[in-house]
Specification:
Radius of gyration: 14 Å
CATH class: Alpha Beta
Number of helices: 4
Structural class: alpha/beta
CATH architecture: Alpha-Beta Horseshoe
């Protein structure tokens, strides 16, 4: 699995990140948590080049909105886990993903359906279980937040 991990690079620009992403089409995991200078432009590049993406960590990227996340979700069919704490997202983001599962940052809140849940500022992780082609399994909240 190819990973890109660039956490807490507050001066990372969209131009630099987009240039890197364009050279990494096989990447499966991206961690840009705390890269507060990045905007939707960076996610548009992820959507364009990273179709094998499985995991995306956006925690603290407060300039990223629904538009950027939707682009990645629509163009990365293998995307399963998105860490979104601190992003400027709205309730309607996951309306096309009724099976989405959401957890709060401490793992205590479980949303059977993210659609319609008031989560802005509290949602930490979203799982898209319909993207994984494995037998169904029930996970505890501690298992789901492991590695966040």
């Amino acid at each position: 699995m190819e990973n890109i991990s660039l956490p807490n690079l507050k001066n990372l620009t969209d131009a630099s990140f987009c240039s890197l992403i364009s050279e990494c089409p096989e990447v499966e995991s991206i961690n840009i948590s705390g890269c507060s200078g990045l905007t939707n432009e960076s996610l548009f590049s992820v959507a364009k080049y990273c179709h094998n993406l499985v995991w995306l960590h956006l925690n603290g990227c407060y300039k990223i909105t629904d538009e950027g996340v939707k682009a990645v979700m629509s163009q990365c069919p293998r995307l399963f886990k998105i860490v979104v704490g601190g992003c400027d997202l709205t309730n309607s983001l996951f309306q096309d993903y009724p099976d989405a599962i959401g957890l709060s940052s401490d793992g205590s809140a479980y949303y059977s359906s993210v659609k319609g849940s008031a989560f802005k500022g509290s949602l930490a992780v979203v799982y898209l279980p319909d993207r994984i082609k494995v037998p169904a399994r029930v996970y505890s909240s501690s298992e789901l937040v492991q590695g966040c």
